[in-house]
Design brief:
The protein has one helix at about 20-35; strands at about 40, 55-60, 75-80, 80-85, 90-95, 100-105, 110, 125-130, 140, 165-175, 175-185, 190-195, 200-205, 215, 220-230, 230-235, 245-250, 260-265, 275-280, 285-290, 300-305, 315-320, 325-330. It has about 325 residues and is mainly beta. The chain has a five-stranded antiparallel sheet with strand order 10-11-12-13-14, with no helix packed on it. It has a five-stranded antiparallel sheet with strand order 15-23-17-18-19, with no helix packed on it. Strands 1-5-6-7 form a four-stranded mixed sheet, with no helix packed on it. The termini are far apart. The relative contact order is 0.08.
Length: about 325
């Protein structure tokens, strides 16, 4: 019969043994030392200056003094002396000061997976940071912000899909309902889509993968419907660049009233306009500066660029004799 247990080497009470309590107490002492193992430190090479009964340490490399030769062993201060216990593969210990967990791999103590700071996070099935991950969202983060920083140079965020017909995209949500999406969804064309309800999406911009051509399937770069009272003016901060290269379509909710003109060059005023056609002819005039409602000629429409303020403005003046709905649509830059 063996005299010790196979795992923790606890001494067995032998047949007809005298002073059985000694053997029994020794086994309890070992259990007390290594069960629910929590150590004060794993970095000391010599005993601390002051110790209390039951203090436990994992002896670090290059130990000296009474700890010499006990590297990686568990040192326990008991009965005014140090007892040492040799760990087996798989032993785990909590470091009381930091909450980290370490695991003995047969050679050294290593950070244990899920054991706090420095834990092994390779090939974990789920990871939730301040929240709970699930089978679909295997990485979940609940925070005010998430930082992905460079490590000395650039940084790429990569979204890889298996085939062109799959999806690789960034989805922006409100209340977990999609409101905007950008990426390659169902093909390799890059698209930006928006939705008011999370169900119906409209493509705002599409860049074709094969040619790089840009399309705007849902409308122009600028579109505005505005109702202007008779002898009143409407203005908007110019929504394009300066210098500009714009083709503008202007129409009115009156049969036969439509105009096409360009706005080009550094914005200064009337010289920026170039008319292509006007119907009826002569019913659209071009001005410089702000329009008040009765600035330009009566009987038609007056349009101007005002550069007197901090930012250029486009003015449209209705002098047609009745209240009208105007539509402005642009293509360009």
């Amino acid at each position: 019969m063996s005299q010790t247990s196979p795992t923790l080497s606890l001494p067995y009470i032998q047949p007809a043994q005298a002073q059985k309590h000694v053997t029994h107490n020794e086994a309890l002492r070992i259990l007390d030392a290594v069960t629910q193992l929590s150590v004060i430190s794993t970095t000391l090479t010599t005993p601390p200056g002051q110790t209390a009964e039951g203090d436990r340490f994992i002896v670090a490399d290059a130990a000296t003094g009474v700890w010499a030769g006990q590297e990686h062993n568990v040192a326990v201060w008991v009965d005014n002396t140090w007892q040492f216990f040799t760990p087996n593969i798989g032993w785990r210990a909590d470091i009381a000061s930091s909450g980290e967990e370490v695991r003995f791999d047969g050679t050294d103590w290593q950070p244990a997976g899920g054991g706090g700071a420095g834990g092994d996070l390779q090939n974990v099935p789920l990871l939730g940071v301040n929240t709970t991950a699930d089978a679909t969202n295997k990485l979940a983060v609940s925070a005010d912000a998430t930082l992905l920083n460079n490590a000395g140079g650039g940084h790429q965020l990569k979204l890889n899909k298996a085939a062109a017909t799959d999806t690789a995209s960034l989805l922006f949500q409100t209340g977990f309902g999609g409101r905007a999406e950008m990426g390659t969804a169902g093909n390799d064309n890059f698209e930006i889509k928006v939705s008011p309800n999370g169900s119906n999406f409209k493509t705002a911009i599409r860049t074709e993968a094969a040619t790089g051509a840009v399309q705007m399937p849902s409308g122009q770069s600028y579109f505005q419907d505005v109702f202007i009272l008779n002898d009143s003016a409407w203005s908007v901060t110019i929504p394009w660049s300066n210098p500009s290269r714009i083709l503008m379509w202007l129409s009115v909710n009156q049969e036969g009233r439509y105009f096409l003109f360009s706005i080009t060059g550094t914005l200064t005023g009337v010289n920026n306009f170039g008319e292509m056609f006007a119907n009826p002819p002569g019913t659209l005039t071009y001005q410089t500066g702000p329009l008040t409602g009765t600035t330009g000629p009566a009987g038609g429409i007056n349009i101007s660029i005002d550069v007197t303020g901090p930012t250029p403005k486009l003015f449209v003046e209705n002098r047609m004799g009745t209240n009208r709905l105007f539509t402005l649509s642009t293509l360009g830059k």
